[in-house]
Amino acid sequence: MLQRIQSVYLILAAAAMLISVAVPLATFYFNTEVVVFEAMGIYLNTELTDSTWGLFAIGLLSSILALITIFLYKNRLLQIRLSIFNIVLMIGFYLYFGFIMYKIYPVQSLELSKVGFGIIMPVISIILTILAIRKIGADEALVQSLNRLRG
Question: Looking at residue 28, what DSSP letter applies?
Fold first, then answer.
């Protein structure tokens, strides 16, 4: 179970998603005021102005799903399906981030100050999940070829 490389990839993907919900995603300037965008909320001059609990929920759900997928090692096809669904969730994380940015602050007066470490983590998690899918698929192909030899 944990000795397989895809388990390591999935643990690292889960850790990356946990990091993305724990650290700031981005820092902006809005009319010369500092706006910090985190997964739990948007802070304008260190005051919570808007709650973005949905981003936190998506990131946490994605992390939990990656951890659950590790323990389904006897059903490799289900592992692959859950991993693909997890990738869709991570893409949804970015789509929801963009939706919140365009909904709350007009683009004309928003100036990017710095990209946070948290906004890069879902991309790393997607890459690690794709690597895990490839390894799970290779295991399934190996099992299928051995079943052909037996029967």
Answer: E
